[in-house]
Amino acid sequence: MRLAKWLIFLLIYCYTNAALSSENDPKIQVFASIFPPFSYLDQGEVRGVSVDLVRQVLTAAEMDYDVVIFPWARAYERSQITPNALLINVARTPEREALFKWVGEIVKFDVKILALKGTNNPKPNTLSDLSNGKIGGLRQDVKTAYLQQQGLTVQVINSEESGIRQLLAGRIDYLAADINSFQYRLTKLQLDPNDFEAVIDLKEISKPLYIAFQKNTPDAVVERLRVALNKVVPQSASNIDQQNIAAPTTSTQRAITD
Questions:
Q1: pLDDT given for residue 6 in this prediction
Q2: Which of 213, 256, 205, 184 has the alpha carbon at shortest distance from 54?
Q3: CA-CA distance, 245 to 239, in Å (whole number)?
Q4: Which of 34, 118, 194, 200 has the greatest number of CB atoms lying within 10 Å of its CB?
């Protein structure tokens, strides 16, 4: 009888320890969005400045992981319902604060309102000057949300590359975009950057982008990655060197689309 009790106790102990170990050492599902040069798909491989950094951090934390890439809205939505999901390149706003467990800053974010040169549109000096124009923005995007909060109407676009094409076609007058990503896309599309101009700086939302866990992720997992991030990138994102961003390859980049 004592032996049987002891065996039952041992089985319960082992099972509990295994469950705790699994909870605190889960496989991380990394969600990236199509946001070159920070994250993009190149010949079937998810690459980019942010992706490379996150891989380093996860390796330093000795965490197992997979990386998937989607258009921004889908990555944002899926990361909120997937256990142990890690979303990269996400702006930290009051509206999003309780939706995630925030790990830390990874890259700069320099947002501008961009326009095509040589149009008949008067150059805006303030956001209110945009009210009569057509502005393009992504769904579930911090730039779109900010402009809407300022009382502006935003025309939803499928991607920022689509937004650039719509600028050229006159279907929109302005596009809100991170300047590094915008210039990278122009190179990819073989367009001349001198044909475009930044007309307004959106300094209010030009703050470093984060990596953040799904809100039900164990605190121990979040802290483990935070410690690793601070070791890999001991300085703030405002000091992260992004000068060596590689130019896009000439190979076709495939992506999961809506």
A1: 53
A2: 213
A3: 15
A4: 34
